Backbone:
């Protein structure tokens, strides 16, 4: 035993090792606690956006995309937010594992607890309407639109009666131009004898979903117009 103690002391002296102050461990622990808190809050926001997008997924139109409900779900899942949630949960796990309490819990329990906490916060954020404001702010961003391109393309089927895209020009009270996810410009027209669309709903860069039919080369007649990821109808043919 004395030989072992001697070898350890010699190694410490040879390595010029010095004891670290207690404050370093306290600050390290507090830092990882803060990082864990940020990861869980961010995970809650991601969860709330997943809930919001799936609730407002225009389920009544799924048969115009595919005959199979399961395929519709797979096509329209918000993969960007799901992947981000997974990364945030893993980030939270790493942070918690580096706190002074991290060693007490099994990795699976930490992961499940982090996921459950993010889900609970997501439900709270969704319940109090925070999510809609976030989605509205992100919807006009070109970066966000590119990240959600796969989901947008899943909805874009003019030959099946659904046209989606970004509003780039308002021609008059009865027609406007959409830039679709495949980078084509379509003129959308509504009945001149029917109601017009309130201008507050026709803002440039708004993401719209139009239900109707093709009447010519890149011309689409609208029976119904909705705001994407909101399900709010801003026009209904009478």
Residues:
């Amino acid at each position: 035993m004395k030989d072992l103690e001697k070898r350890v002391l010699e190694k410490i002296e040879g390595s010029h090792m010095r004891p670290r102050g207690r404050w370093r461990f306290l600050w390290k622990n507090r830092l990882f606690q803060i990082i864990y808190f940020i990861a869980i809050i961010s995970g809650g926001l991601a969860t709330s956006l997943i809930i919001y997008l799936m609730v407002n997924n225009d389920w009544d139109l799924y048969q115009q995309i595919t005959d199979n409900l399961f395929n519709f779900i797979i096509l329209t899942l918000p993969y960007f937010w799901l992947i981000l949630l997974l990364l945030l949960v893993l980030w939270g796990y790493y942070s918690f594992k580096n706190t002074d309490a991290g060693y007490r819990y099994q990795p699976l329990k930490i992961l499940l607890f982090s996921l459950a906490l993010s889900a609970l916060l997501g439900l709270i954020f969704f319940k109090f309407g925070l999510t809609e404001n976030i989605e509205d702010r992100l919807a006009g961003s070109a970066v966000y639109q590119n990240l959600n391109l796969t989901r947008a393309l899943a909805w874009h089927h003019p030959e099946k009666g659904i046209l989606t895209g970004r509003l780039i020009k308002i021609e008059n009270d009865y027609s406007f131009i959409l830039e679709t996810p495949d980078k084509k410009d379509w003129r959308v027209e509504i009945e001149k004898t029917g109601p017009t669309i309130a201008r507050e709903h026709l803002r440039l860069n708004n993401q719209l979903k139009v239900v109707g039919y093709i009447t010519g080369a890149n011309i689409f007649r609208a029976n119904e117009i909705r705001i994407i990821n909101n399900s709010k109808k801003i026009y209904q043919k009478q």
